[in-house]
Amino acid sequence: MSQSDDFTSTSGGLVCSHHHLYSALARGMPAPASTPMSFRQILELIWWRLDTALDLDIIRDSARLGALEALARGCTAIIDHHESPNAIEGSLDVIAEACAEVGIRSVCSYGVTDRHGADGARRGLEENRRFISGGGRGMVGVHAAFTCSDETLESAAGLAADLGVGVHIHVAEGPDDAGAENRIRHLATGDWLLVHGVMLPDGHGLQGTIVHNPRSNMNNSVGYANPARFTNPVALGTDGIGADMLEEFRLAYVAGRSVDVETSPEAAWGWMENGWRLVPESADDKVIWASPEFGPWFQAFSTGTSPLSVEVDGEVLWADGAPTRIDEVEVRTKAAESARRLFARLEEI
Ligand SMILES: [Zn+2]
């Protein structure tokens, strides 16, 4: 997968196996009224305020910025997980179109939850159904078992089976969702994405791919998932903090190394490459890296490796430090305008 001369090497397009493109504008957001003291409070004081403030224009500008920043780091496919309780209908189209405008691949899902009542859950399910049955590339999203009734979990699993796709769900990320495996074990199938798994016991018995997000887990102080202990396939995601997958690989490696000196970077490299099982076409995309070697040992000890060019489906989308299809200044200007509007709204929530 990696050819090289003295200065460059080549790979397929990298895959971010768990992202939240709606959070691309969150950097610089106003601080919450009080400092979060737990994972639950991080959700309540930050992310569950942010998602209620989203409208379709903000989602579009946020997704375009996130897609642009992914492309700039050689990531050509994003598996996104979205929630915007006050702008549900059509939100997945907006995200898919934003990624298509930049030129990268997307797999979209709407995170169903009972946090906004039974009607909110129903509308979330319907957005997944509408988007996927209309030809959109997606999975059925679920926020997490701890914010869903058994009935909602069963409806989501049933919808996914009917549509022939998997479920994309946060699982046992923190203490609030501990024991989630006992509520979804009878539902999960091999095509599910089980995101985080920090609190999962070794023998959890769930089918599906575990998606490890080391930076997010550290940031939320939820502990180390240690995904090497699972027999499931493991992939890598960023949980909304950009889409620099080489950076996430390096963190995944050193996080493993911090608890076991025998940890090799080959394990985390394999997790990054497992993105190609989830979005196989991206393996045929072409990234030329400004680095003589694209492999686990060399990249674990490099920093800031950048692509010289990125090609998706035979089209060069990134060259000479800039996107070819879209105007970067326009994307960033609109994103900044939307961020100001979003932050003003957050001050009122
Ligand atoms: Zn997430």
Number of helices: 12
Characterize the quaternary organization of these chains. Answer: single chain
Named CATH architecture: Alpha-Beta Barrel
Share of β-strand residues: 15-25%
Q: What is the domain total for the residues?
A: 1
* CATH fourth-tier homologous superfamily: Metal-dependent hydrolases
Main beta sheet: 6 strands, parallel
Total strands: the figure is 14
Structural class: alpha/beta
Describe this structure in words.
By secondary structure, the chain is an alpha/beta fold. It has a single domain, classed as Metal-dependent hydrolases (TIM Barrel), CATH 3.20.20. Helices cover 39% and strands 17% of the residues. It is built from twelve helices and 14 strands. It has helices spanning 39-50, 56-72, 91-102, 117-133, 150-163, 181-184, 214-219, 245-259, 265-273, 275-278, 296-300, 328-348, and strands spanning 9-11, 14-19, 75-80, 105-107, 111-112, 140-144, 167-171, 193-196, 209-212, 234-236, 286-289, 307-312, 315-319, 322-323. The strands form three sheets. Strands 5-6-7-8-9-10 form a six-stranded parallel β-sheet. Strand 9, helix 7 and strand 10 form a beta-alpha-beta unit. It is globular, with a radius of gyration of 19 Å.
Summarize this entry quickly.
This protein has 349 residues and is an alpha/beta fold. The protein contains twelve helices and 14 strands. The chain is 39% helix and 17% strand.
Helices and strands in order, then pairings?
Elements: E1 9-11, E2 14-19, H1 39-50, H2 56-72, E3 75-80, H3 91-102, E4 105-107, E5 111-112, H4 117-133, E6 140-144, H5 150-163, E7 167-171, H6 181-184, E8 193-196, E9 209-212, H7 214-219, E10 234-236, H8 245-259, H9 265-273, H10 275-278, E11 286-289, H11 296-300, E12 307-312, E13 315-319, E14 322-323, H12 328-348
The structure holds zinc ion.
The site of zinc ion (ZN) has 6 residues, from loops.
